[in-house]
Amino acid sequence: MKQITLIIIGTLCIALGTTLLAIPNQLADGGVIGISLLLYYAFDFSPGILLFISFVVLIGVSVKYLPRHMVYKSLINVPLLSLLIFLTEDLGQPLGDPLVAAIFAGVIIGSGFGLIIQAGSSIGGTSIIGLMFNQKFGWDVVLVTFVLDILIVLAGVFIIGPLYMMYTVVALFVGKIASDYVLSGFDAKKAVNIISTRSIDISKRITNDMASSATVFEGYGGYSEESRKSVYVVVRSPRILSLKRLIREIDPDAFVVVHNVKDVSGGTFFATPSMDDKVEIEEGFYDYEGI
After folding, report:
1. Residue after which a domain boundary falls, among 131, 158, 184
2. Are 151 and 165 in contact, with CB atoms under 8 Å apart?
3. Residues near 141 by Cβ (< 8 Å), separated by ≥ 6?
4. What does the pLDDT look like over 111-148, one tens digit per residue?
5. Domain count, the chain
């Protein structure tokens, strides 16, 4: 039920972003949606009907080359998306600022794609063509899909002009970022590797002062040829400065590497210590296997 809800909400976002923002502001898109929009601008064909026909043709051809489960994933999204676009394609009004329209169209459409992918489904389109070429000729799916999308966007120069084609590129870029945030989460975190001669002391202070679990690994220095422990810890971004100060207090010469991470689950990285945990910490009992 949750996956169906995500698919419906995601499809609705794509449809409304397309009809309320993209169409009235002369923006295109990649994939089959982009082809439908360009034909709409050129010949005033209904994008909803064109979208449905295009997907039916693609799915009909792909049945011969692709596994059934890949085809079934698009059978819910495609008719629903086509219907929603058909019903709302005349409701949008120009904003007067295509750049603002491109940004918000990217956010809404990209979020919709993210929700659909999160539900384990897809819109299909040029990715179906990429999969077919992969099955028949062994071509790279991502490369084929990317080249097709680029060609569709570039074709917009001849229909909507170079300026609106560039606005379309902005919308696609914003949409990619929005999809990534929907899939990976908005709560960015930092993963920190700390190599120090005082790794145990640093790990204890992290556990005691920051209420975050840390994992201590045995390491070996390729240059120094000495065994040395390293600490791995994940903290929320606002706490990274506190962590760095803590490390410098204990070992100013510690080697610290910080990585950006968005999706962290499991473990006890951000658990608030209970009273029993606090007592154990005060008595000197530390668990270094936080992962």
Report:
1. 184
2. no
3. 127, 130, 131, 133, 134
4. 998 888 777 776 767 777 777 787 778 887 667 877 88
5. 2
Segments in 89-214 forming alpha helices (H):
98-118, 126-137, 141-155, 161-184, 199-210
Non-local (6+) Cβ contacts of 172 within 8 A are: 29, 30, 106, 153
User: What is the CATH classification number for the domain harbouring 240?
Assistant: 3.30.70.120
Asked which of 157, 184, 211 is the last residue of a domain, the reply is 184
Task: Provide the residue range defining the domain that includes 201.
Answer: 189-283
CB atoms within 10 A of CB 272: 7
Q: Are strands 255-261 and 215-220 parallel, antiparallel or unpaired?
A: unpaired
Which token pair is 35?
């082809």
Residues 117 and 9 in one domain: yes
Same domain, 132 and 177: yes
The string of pLDDT tens digits covering residues 24-66 is 999 998 888 999 999 999 999 999 999 889 888 877 777 776 6
Q: C-alpha 217: how far from its chain's center?
A: 31
211/188 Cα distance (integer angstroms): 18
Q: Which residue has the tokens 């360009």?
A: 38
Q: Do residues 114 and 180 touch, judged by C-beta distance below 8 A?
A: yes
